[in-house]
Amino acid sequence: MFASLTGTVETVGADSAVIDVNGVGFLVRMSALDLAHLHTGQQTHVLTSLHVAQDSLSLYGFLARQSQELFAQLLKVSGIGPKVALGVLSSFTPAQFADIVQRQDTTALTKAQGLGRKGAQKIILELANKLVLDSDSASGSQADAQPADPVAAQLVDAMVGMGKDAKQAQEAVNKAIEALGIATPMPADKSVESQVLSYAFRSMDRRD
After folding, report:
1. For the chain, which residues score pLDDT lower than 50?
2. Does the keyword Cytoplasm apply (predicted)?
């Protein structure tokens, strides 16, 4: 129903944010790691997943596609609901989680809020051979991973809207941020955004 939201951050709470999209406020539940990158008045782009329960609809949001993918895979584990899945994302990045599963470190996984030892064991057992995350993200490469901040994500979307390949646009934006020495998450500054876009387009044109 909702693939993503682009709008203004109205409020940021302990486990959710309200995103104003053309005058309509959407309550989006997010991990603590993602919420730390948001502030009131900021323009943001959030990937979303809608969870339907018997008596409610809840919208979950993510600043990076790898987090969204991990959330979906956690929900496939028997007995794991969205609250626990979000607790995992609040405690570990996708790369950290993949490392924990690979090492079968149950003790480390139980540090996630709301997750006991049995639940951690079940996650490791069921995802050990099924975990599929973007390999570039798992390696932690800044040059290749999808941007983890909303401003960079918006720039990628803008390039895709102009006909550029999504993966190449992600790589170009990240390389521009790195080459220009811009701090992440990127500030919502039109001048900085223009510099990054200009550099990203030039790098892609040279590649073509």
Report:
1. 135-147
2. yes
**Buried-exposed string 169-193: b where 16+ CB fall within 10 A, e elsewhere:** bbbbbbbbbeeeebeebbebeeebb
Asked whether 151 and 37 are in contact (CB, 8 A), the reply is no
Q: Domain locations in the chain?
A: 4-62, 65-139, 150-207
Q: What spatial distance separates the first Cα and last Cα of the chain, rounded to whole Å?
A: 36
Quote the radius of gyration of the chain (alpha carbons, Å). 18
Residue 202 in tokens: 């030039």
Please name the helix (run of DSSP H) or strand (run of DSSP E) that holds residue 78, with its range, or none. Answer: none
The DSSP 8-state label assigned to residue 38 in this structure reads -
Cα–Cα dist 13/197, whole Å = 31
Give the tokens for residue 187: 């500030």
Average pLDDT over the chain, rounded to an integer = 86
**pTM of the complete model:** 0.66
Helices 65-75, 82-91: crossing angle, 10 deg rounding = 140
Chosen CATH of 150-207 out of 3.90.190.10, 1.10.8.10, 1.10.520.10, 3.40.50.150: 1.10.8.10
